[in-house]
Amino acid sequence: MATVETSTGTVVSHWIGGKPYAATSGRFGPLMNPATGEQIAEVGFASVGDADHAVASAKAAFPEWRATALSRRAEILFRFRELIAQNKQQIAEIVSRENGKTMADAHGEVARGLENVEFACGIPNLLKGGYTEQASRGVDVYQIRQPLGVVAGITPFNFPVMVPLWMLSNAIACGNAFVLKPSEKVPGASVLLAQLLKEAGLPDGVLNLVHGDKVAVDRILDHPDIKAVSFVGSTPIAKYIYETSTRNGKRVQALGGAKNHMLVLPDADINMAADAAVSAGYGAAGERCMAISVILAVGTVAEPLIDAIRERMTKIKVGPGSDPSSEMGPLITREHRDRVASHLDKATAEGATVTVDGRKNPLTKQKGFYLAPSLIDNAKPGMQCYDQEIFGPVLSVVRVDSYAEAINLINENPFGNGTAVFTQNGGAARQFQFDVEVGMVGINVPIPVPVAYYSFGGWKNSLFGDLHMYGPEGVQFYTRSKVVTSRWPNPSSSKVDLGFPQMR
Ligand code: NAD
């Protein structure tokens, strides 16, 4: 990781113009190891001047990068892909140390991020436009896609590698220069990605990083040279990013929070549904935007399903991500762990049943930010555990009488990121896919994160903007189209004609 040694310790530096750049603001945040509860280093927070410097570096690099041949851009991305693969262990270690997720999960994240680089390697094909010959006599019309200029990405703590790769792979491949503001809680992996891109041959200034908080973000949103902003994070901030960026005339895609429902119909295979609920509810300590948060158990399925979930969840080994036997790590910060745990008391007070209380695990008494898997039964709309995004290892079960009641709950929910149905009935699954007002749907698949050649995005309060992230819509987001109408007339046939051009 690019760091600077100072008299007070190690500081994670920005990356501007192809090299580490020490923060000038005098403001720092702690970089914590959630598994030990100890501080590892400091993160230098960008000032407005630091952010301006990053944007200026990107602006200077843009003209030459935009003119670079597509085959050369693809060559750099292919090399970047190889370098990520070669360094995946180091990347995963940084992710696990700063975020807390297990090494297996960190490797999974790197692999899913890599898919986005692989998609972007196909940029010569992705930027092909349409061509119409003889739209009129001797007139051809064609569409080309051109980069926007300097574009920015602002990313959350829960995917320190994958989400930056969702954005920067396509943005750079399309010929833009990119400024990334990663989560200040997990800054290390993106610095390593910047180093690898340089090693892959990316010209200096095409990718720049600034670490920090609202100061850096607000400068990105205000800066006149930034043409588009991609954001992934919580809903209130996503809404703020969308409103501020659009007011400032920028293109924006802002992905927000989630409350993902898993609908289990009475004919579902109980063991398969329980395996999926536990994996998707407690994987990454529930800190995935596609994690299952609510189980809608229809009719008689509730009792056997809850028994099967309880049996599985109590066997999950919670521990530091660096221990290969750990299946679930700590949460990101002490404050977040305490907030997640507070939902358990509130659920009891509101009349739900805390069936498994993760606070009873002795690990919660240690310095790391642990909370073992927890299960709330008899949750209902109007209760905090149902109404709010918990973003931790707490699953809530809502018992419903019918499919109609279940679909109504999902569709009335203000979030619409992901959802899943578990059933053995193809017709029921198809009806669910038709009815549900959610952007990403799984049929017997609990975390339906689309592959890189589709696009990722929720509906309702889970996405502000028009285009989803990565895949074909990512290419659309990072380019604007130009339509050219072209004629090569014989000069001898030229004449003045004030009529409106007609095609027939
Ligand atoms: P967050 O919204 O707190 O932070 C995201 C980014 O915004 C960070 O870079 C942070 O520095 C910045 N930020 C925070 N507060 C800000 C403010 N007041 N002004 C300007 N910038 C600010 O989110 P998080 O806690 O890092 O991540 C967890 C959230 O992200 C969850 O809500 C989760 O559902 C969501 N998420 C969504 C997706 C998705 O694809 N929809 C994916 C991952 C995470």
Describe this structure in words.
By secondary structure, the chain is α/β, with parallel strands linked by helices. It is 38% helix and 24% strand. The strands form six sheets. A seven-stranded mixed sheet has the order 16-17-18-15-14-20-21, with helices on both faces. Strands 11-10-9-12-13-23 form a six-stranded mixed sheet, with helices on both faces. A hairpin with a 2-residue loop joins strand 7 and strand 8. Helix 2 packs antiparallel against helix 4, helix 3 packs across helix 4 (103-120) and helix 3 packs antiparallel against helix 7 (188-199). The longest helix has 20 residues, at 48-67. The N and C termini lie far apart (63 Å). Nicotinamide-adenine-dinucleotide binds at residues 154-159, 181, 183-184, 213-214, 217, 232-234, 237, 255-258, 289, 389, 391, 417, 458, 462.
Summarize the structure.
By secondary structure, the protein is of the alpha/beta class. Helix content is 38%, strand content 24%.
Descriptive key words:
504 residues, alpha/beta, seven-stranded mixed sheet, six-stranded mixed sheet, 24% strand, globular, binds nicotinamide-adenine-dinucleotide
